[in-house]
Amino acid sequence: MIALEDLQALPITNRVTIPEDYQDEMGHMNIQYYVRIYDQAAWGLFEWLDISLEDLRATQNGMFALKQFIQYFAEVHIGETVVVRSRVLGKSAKRLHFIHFMVNESTGKLASTFEVLATHADLSIRRSAPFSDVITAKIQQRIDEHEQLAWEPPLSGILAP
Questions:
Q1: What is the pTM of this model?
Q2: Which region, left, alpha or beta, applies to residue 97 given φ > 0 means left and ψ of -120 to 50 means alpha?
Q3: Options 3.40.50.720, 1.10.150.450, 3.10.129.10, 3.30.499.10; which CATH number does 4-147 get?
């Protein structure tokens, strides 16, 4: 398991205090809200990569999730605060591979990970399209930074750009 101290080097892409309506019949946060929190974190990650929603709209581009792999390690309950930190793993001309780590700040435990393969898309034709040269360079810069970390992320082995 990854040490929480290792995650401190990663950018915070979302932070949420869990509201009452996120609770399910089992007395913890329902799985649909993990995905919601991770979706919001993806936008935080994209902003960190200089892929803003405004720029995407202006250029008729977008980002689509292609594959996702989620793991749960510890329950999250109502009133607890979680933080999501994100690591960029790889890219191709059109794809982006990353992982989110959800840490329960209230309990000090890693609650979940969410590994994603996403694609950049041309929304005028609704098909995958290459990133711009500027975005490609920024993504590569962030990959290079994250490759300097002294720990390997816990990957599924089934997703790759």
A1: 0.94
A2: beta
A3: 3.10.129.10
